[in-house]
């Protein structure tokens, strides 16, 4: 677990975020993971390749399999917590064909916690986890309609690679690959 105190400047206001801690997603938290993931899919459907309709049909065993994968060493997932509330989540999967690369997926911050440093804290945690495993590059896909997400990732040092793909749930939307060297 990691705790941080952040002082952020928003215009001329100082906003203090001192309530967030990072918790690894484990099989013991499977019901929480399911609830947070489904909330994320409802809140930001164009940010995910999966859908609420599809994932709400998964069995308890399938959810358990997902969380078990996150503790076996090659992949990881993290919750951002605020006084017992789930403020966000992020997952990172090592690419099977290139163990020096990992993909940031399922990144989401609850609306009430956006622009308060929670996303940066999640990314910093994923990067620290990846560096410990010898991963050199972090990649992600972001939809073209998620302008705030693209700008957020740019501010954290991610750049567009030039690779695009049609968004799986709407072929009129493109997903853009972004990457960042981390070691």
Explain this structure:
An 8-stranded mixed beta sheet has the order 1-4-5-6-7-8-10-9, with helices on both faces. By secondary structure, it is an alpha+beta fold. The chain has helices spanning about 30-45, 50-55, 60-70, 120-130, 145-155, and strands spanning about 1-5, 5-10, 15, 20-25, 75-80, 85-95, 100-110, 135-145, 160-165, 170-180. It has a single domain, classed as Gcn5-related N-acetyltransferase (GNAT) (Aminopeptidase, 3-Layer(aba) Sandwich), CATH 3.40.630. A hairpin with a 2-residue loop joins strand 6 (about 85-95) and strand 7. The chain is built from 5 helices and 10 strands.
- Helix-strand category: alpha+beta
Order of helices and strands: EEEEHHHEEEHEHEE
CATH class descriptor name: Alpha Beta
Helix content: 25-40%
How much strand?
35-45%
Low-confidence stretches: 1-17
Task: Tell me the quaternary state.
Answer: single chain
CATH level-3 fold name: Aminopeptidase
CATH architecture: 3-Layer(aba) Sandwich
* Distance between the first and last residues' Cα: 22 Å
Short overview:
With 183 residues, the protein is of the alpha+beta class. The protein has 5 helices and 10 strands.
Name the features.
alpha+beta; two-stranded antiparallel sheet; 28% helix; 183 residues; Aminopeptidase; globular; eight-stranded mixed β-sheet; 10 strands
């Amino acid at each position: 677990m990691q705790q941080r105190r952040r002082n952020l400047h928003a215009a001329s206001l100082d906003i203090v975020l001192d309530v967030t801690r990072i918790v690894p997603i484990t099989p013991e938290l499977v019901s929480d993971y399911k609830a947070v993931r489904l909330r994320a899919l409802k809140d930001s459907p164009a940010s995910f390749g999966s859908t609420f309709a599809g994932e709400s049909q998964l069995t308890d065993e399938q959810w358990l399999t997902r969380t078990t994968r996150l503790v076996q060493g090659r992949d990881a997932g993290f919750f951002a917590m605020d006084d017992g509330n789930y403020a966000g989540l992020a997952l990172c999967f090592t690419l099977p064909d290139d163990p020096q690369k990992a993909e940031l997926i399922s990144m989401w911050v609850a609306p009430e916690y956006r622009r308060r440093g929670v996303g940066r804290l999640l990314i910093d945690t994923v990067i620290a986890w990846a560096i410990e495993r010898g991963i050199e590059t972090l990649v992600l896909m972001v939809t073209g309609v998620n302008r705030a997400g693209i700008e957020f990732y740019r501010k954290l040092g991610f750049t567009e690679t030039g690779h695009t793909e049609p968004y799986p749930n709407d072929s009129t939307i493109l997903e853009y690959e972004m990457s960042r060297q981390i070691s």
